[in-house]
Amino acid sequence: MSLDDSVQDLADRLGTPLVVLDLELKVVAYSIHDTAVRRARLGRLLAGSAAPVTDSVVRVHGLRTATHPVRVPADANREALVVTPLRHDKRPLGYLYFVDDRPSPDRSAAEEASALESACPEIAMLLSLKLSEARHSGEHSRFVLAALLGDSVVERRHAAATLLQEGLIEDVDQYSVLVFRAPDLAPRSVTRLAVEETLEFTSRSTTVKIVGAVLGTDGIVLFPRPVNKTRLGQILASADLEQVTAGVGGVKRSLNEAVDSFHEAQIACRASTLDARRYGRVAFWDGLGLDRLLLQLPLDRLTPNDLPPGVQRLLAAPNGRELASTLETYLDNGGEVQRTAQHLNVHRSTLYYRLDRIREVTGCELSDGVTRLDLHAGLRVARLSALWLRG
């Protein structure tokens, strides 16, 4: 019997919707019902934003160490629940829960306890098997994805063939790689969560097969199509992922070229990390422009002395960052005063004053095309290399 079948049998015996969670409180299985009332209740139990079993409930009611069903009283946010810890070989695996709506005409407390006592050991054993299968499947996907994006041409070809033969991804002519990255001090679990949320969101909203894993510090997802910017934004909107940035590589015609999209996605992710002002939290390789080249320079080895002299003088001056930002915006807008003033939210007279001050500090004539190119590129390198902050 499968986990789903076992849960369904118990739900039919108890006459109420059941949900099974793993230790991370993610839904692993739930019962199916044919009445409107029970479907509505199940919908409430499964609602992601109002999930009744939370980390707080687990902690307050001692669910991790409990050995018998625990009755959780109702509060302003949820109905009363019965939560049964699931263990196999004395190892905690998750929880089975349902709404505690007794007194009920179709079951007594004794019948409920008897049903849980007889069914939960089998459910726990089946949950253990399912989690083990998922773990091995995830490890296999991680191994194959690592080979696909590795340095060996032979291993990349073998990994591509494996992905297609095992049906882990579609055989198409357009593949792109998405890279997630969390701040250095953030737990690695944040990056893993970004990958898992992407896998779950895609499985819920489309029939597309994708592969994802965490390799090193990068969360990586391989798509058999271009990455949808709107859907990616919806995933990153989660409060748990507010520190995560993302980069998307270009579309490639074969799986053997996915490694190129991966490297592009890493560069794009770096762009979103270094310049949220321009890119926000997501950068696409196709939208990087000159940053494609600049971000492949040894930026971490640059010093202020490597910048054009005018940029050096500007960043070293009093109020240098404000003047540098003004000049950058002015050059970004092609030297158009009105549009620059609007972007900076200043009066035109204020902008003219700052431009005069910039000419004085840099010793440069802003009307000269070559000079403007030097200043614009120098400012861009300063921002991407963090020299801006050290100026």
Structure notes:
With 391 residues, this protein is of the alpha+beta class. The protein folds into three domains: 128 residues, 2-Layer Sandwich (Beta-Lactamase), CATH 3.30.450; 126 residues, Reverse transcriptase/Diguanylate cyclase domain (Alpha-Beta Plaits); 88 residues, Arc Repressor Mutant, subunit A (Orthogonal Bundle), CATH 1.10.10. Helix content is 50%, strand content 13%. It has 16 helices and ten strands. Strands 2-1-5-4-3 form a five-stranded antiparallel β-sheet. Helix 1 runs antiparallel to helix 4, helix 4 runs antiparallel to helix 5 and helix 13 crosses helix 14. The protein is elongated, with a radius of gyration of 28 Å. The N and C termini lie far apart (67 Å). The model has no long low-confidence stretch (mean pLDDT 88).
Brief characterization of the structure:
The protein is of the alpha+beta class and 391 residues long.
Q: What's the structural domain tally?
A: 3
Q: Please name the fourth-level CATH homologous superfamily of the largest domain.
A: GAF domain
Mean pLDDT: 88
Annotation field: number of helices: 16
Note the overall shape. Answer: elongated
Largest sheet: 5 strands, antiparallel
Structural class: alpha+beta
Question: Into which percentage range does the β-strand content fall?
Answer: 5-15%
- The CATH C-level class name of the largest domain: Alpha Beta
Q: Under the CATH scheme, which architecture of the largest domain would be assigned?
A: 2-Layer Sandwich
Q: Give a count of the beta strands, DSSP E runs of length 2 or more.
A: 10
